[in-house]
Amino acid sequence: MTLPADGVEIRLASRPEGWPTSENFTITRAAVPAVGAGQVLVRNLVMSVDPYMRGRMNDTKSYIPPFEVGTALEGGAVGEVIASESPDLAVGDVVLHGLGWREFAVVDAGNAVKVDPGLAGGAYGVFLGVLGMPGLTAYAGLLKAADFREGDVVFVSGAAGAVGSLVGQIAKLRGAAKVIGSAGSAEKVAHLKDDLGFDEAFNYKDGPVLEQLEKAAPEGIDVYFDNVAGEHLEAALSVANQGARFALCGAISQYNEKNEVVAPRNLFNAITKGMNLRGFIVAEYGDLKEQFFAEVGGWLAEGKLVARETVVEGLENAPTAFIDLMRGANTGKMLVKI
Amino acid sequence: MTLPADGVEIRLASRPEGWPTSENFTITRAAVPAVGAGQVLVRNLVMSVDPYMRGRMNDTKSYIPPFEVGTALEGGAVGEVIASESPDLAVGDVVLHGLGWREFAVVDAGNAVKVDPGLAGGAYGVFLGVLGMPGLTAYAGLLKAADFREGDVVFVSGAAGAVGSLVGQIAKLRGAAKVIGSAGSAEKVAHLKDDLGFDEAFNYKDGPVLEQLEKAAPEGIDVYFDNVAGEHLEAALSVANQGARFALCGAISQYNEKNEVVAPRNLFNAITKGMNLRGFIVAEYGDLKEQFFAEVGGWLAEGKLVARETVVEGLENAPTAFIDLMRGANTGKMLVKI
């Protein structure tokens, strides 16, 4: 097999100010780098767009370095090894790695994880979703950061997204008394209740979050899994029961906001209610992976978990997929098929 | 001994809007109630004014019910039993109880704790300070809520107050790498460094808290004990190290604020830094009392802890003492000698 000389890749053209637009991205062809010792050449099959990528598009110091303007973006992807200079991976292996946003990636073998194509039945997107980073985020965030306990009333925002939809389902499978979700459309609300088994769900665009949450949870909430921040977090602080536990996972209401953030204005509730607020990123919980694969993989195999995907076709549409993700166009995990 | 027919008591005249004034209090004489079965009559010797009392002056639902307008205020006090209808307490016993703000209190024996006058050498204020509620607040808040660990860099706001001054000293005694305090005057800053052994201290009125904190803690902070909220909390979130732990204990910058609270605007740091924020009130940690008395009592007996008091003479000056407390006039525990 002749190796490709070049391939499509997507670069950051400029840093978005506020909401990202297509002008922040460059779709171009670039030479495929040489495969060095210990590396493999991967033909990407599917890639992930995730909300956290928005943060990397800013020039701010954070837990991972910012993307660089003029160079290819990065992110989770699954592809097939088409050349190998590593004894650990062979041509034909399917691997999960961190160099998405491009047709061909040269990856250090140590940064590529071989996945079992049998487990997914060829639908590799699960390794970027329910059995991947969003799945572990939901699992570890709920069980560790929020210290979920059987009998809890659980509220999750962004509940129709990749992480939120799993948080709600895992809470139910682990014995939550009640699971409440918020989402941004009537269709998503129906999906939460009809397909995912949420007890209550509401469209945050229908009215103040606090009013809708109070109605959905007259008994208060014990756990809040926050993907949104802002008004959602304030409502959850108001409605929280004594000793409530919050997992702070995301703040999508703020990622594209140019105005100054003013919330939460009622954090004092955390004192009077003896609450715990735990911020986290998934990397912290790597040691939970084995337990996660066993439990969540088991539920998935038994058909107890619904893992909806929104799949966009074509690498050239990845910027649009990302922009749409920011606006909540997806239900479940947003993927780009390459 | 003839029992008193009446005595001075201080009532809430009206709920303060913003900063409390003397007009919010009524100083009056009232009949001493009859001592019922299981009760004792106590002549109060010393009483406490505490920041949390401000919250009870508002008509808002919280962990304790609000004070009622027209009735006597309540709060920690130590006094001598002068009549007893309880087999558990005898005339002459010295007891700690919750009915301060009055000369004579009729207390259910079950709500009065006999204290050892020998321990305090007759200075009963310690039972309202270092060995009382503020002491346990500092001890449990630092060790449990903030999960303090040897080698931590610790920042405490309101550091010259009853709680803050103990937090810093306990942290040093327990092996903190560095203890930083903020306070509201040059005298207090000197007290923190010269008398209490803080490594760094600054006057928050001298300039932006963030700038001063960054200078005091170029290595970042691992623990923040928050008595103040607002700008202090935002600065601490900015300067926090990965995995930092915050104990949220008070918000004195906000208690008398009529304008809407706008902070913290940078809570997103809690996510990227994997931080834990734990709100608490001391009642939650009652099971720690025995350990607290043993360890803190030991340090006190060995002269390893400085427990400064600001003592105001005369029950009629209790409203002024409280108002002054709100403005930070005290160094260490604020007490009213009756």
Automatic annotation (TrEMBL), chains A, B:
CDD domains xrefs: PGDH
User: Origin, by domain of life?
Assistant: Bacteria
The Enoyl reductase (ER) domain is annotated at: 21-336
One GO MF term: oxidoreductase activity, acting on the CH-CH group of donors, NAD or NADP as acceptor
Which SUPFAM superfamilies does the record associate with it? GroES-like, NAD(P)-binding Rossmann-fold domains
Cite the InterPro entries for this sequence. ADH-like_C (IPR013149), ADH_N_2 (IPR041694), ER (IPR020843), GroES-like_sf (IPR011032), MDR_fam (IPR045010), NAD(P)-bd_dom_sf (IPR036291)
The record ties this protein, via Pfam families, to: ADH_N_2, ADH_zinc_N
Q: What is this protein called?
A: Enoyl reductase (ER) domain-containing protein
The species is Allokutzneria albata (Kibdelosporangium albatum)
